[in-house]
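Thread: sanity check for a docking pose with pyridoxal-5'-phosphate

Original post by kr_44:
Hi all, I'm comparing my docking run against an independent structure prediction. Below are the sequence and the ligand SMILES. Could someone generate the full complex and paste the structure tokens? I mainly care about where the ligand ends up relative to the chain.
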Amino acid sequence: MIKFLDLQKINATYSDELKLAASEVIDSGWFLMGEKVNKFEKNLATYIGSSNAIGVGNGLDALRLILKGYIELGYMSEGDEVIVPANTYIASILAITENKLKPVLVEPNNLTFNLDIDLIEKNITTRTKAIMIVHLYGQVCWSNSIKDLAKKYNLKIIEDNAQAFGAQYGSVKTGALGDAAGFSFYPGKNLGALGDAGAVTTNDNELAEIIRALGNYGSKKKYFNEYQGLNSRLDEMQAAFLDIKLKYIENENQQRRQLASIYLNKINNKDVVLPFSSNNAIKVENNKEHVWHLFVIRHSKRNQLQDYLTKCGIETLIHYPIPASKQLAYKEMNELNFPITNSIHNEVLSLPISPVMTDKEVAIVINAVNSFKC
Ligand SMILES: *Cc1c(COP(=O)(O)O)cnc(C)c1O
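Reply from moderator J.T.:
Ran it for you. Here is the predicted complex with pyridoxal-5'-phosphate included:
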């Protein structure tokens, strides 16, 4: 069986370092808001090129706290609108509705799967306060026109960087492109913790200070509560693990690029639509705009292809089978029509990709995909 993502194998690579770090934390007797978190936050801010990094409980909380921070600062209030891609993972949208803001779903580009930048402007109203871009599947969603639009309409740009850790546009890393960014270190993400973890990065010092307080009961000074906050903190154990794995992320992302390049060169089933790079002037293995969190192909008979691959001993996943707007949780959006989003959800299939896949496993996946007929 070829696993979709072999977390055991990925973490085994660093197991001596991880175990040592775990013992240090256990022996220190200090588990929250300590030096491991401080150190990781500093290293993360430096890596991303952002003036602030704040560890939080998970990726959803990172996005929730950014919006809550902007509300506390008076940039937005109940009923204001946030533009967000219709085909994103539901967490991006939950962060918006949870803050009593209105998600305005916009279709993605059919080739890149990322928010169609050309459709942003016609969705802006007097109540629009932010654009949440999602670097979906690991590919940067950016162009200078997003920045121009934000300036023209006085909007905040929030990055959902859960899937694109280490990607960059030119020399700027995702997480430093917009006004604030949410990160997830869910175990299966490119930089994965050994449990739930997340972070916010921003160059806005005022926002950073408020988010730090909001994630800690709304308190800057113990037992003094300025805001109605929540409890969402990165813990010492996860911070220690993440600090170790951060050292290897460039190397891991490079291995993902190399693997993507092999898939792109060798998968030749004419019914399969291969992932499209928004920057095809640069060779896949050199293109920093993609960190290949997922390798997503399309096929009109997706379910049959998935069944076939399962029979061949290959585990695949679907990101995602049901769009947020069609979920029971969002009945008010069930009637909205997003044809591109719907076709993506019906046709996409994610092949195994990870830094620990062997050449033999890659060859098995390629042969199986190429041999599928329908
Ligand atoms: C994983 C993910 C999140 C949420 O992160 P958690 O750490 O699981 O809360 C948010 N947005 C996107 C696009 C994600 O893939």
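The two ends are 23 Å apart (CA to CA). Hope that helps with the comparison, let us know if your pose agrees.
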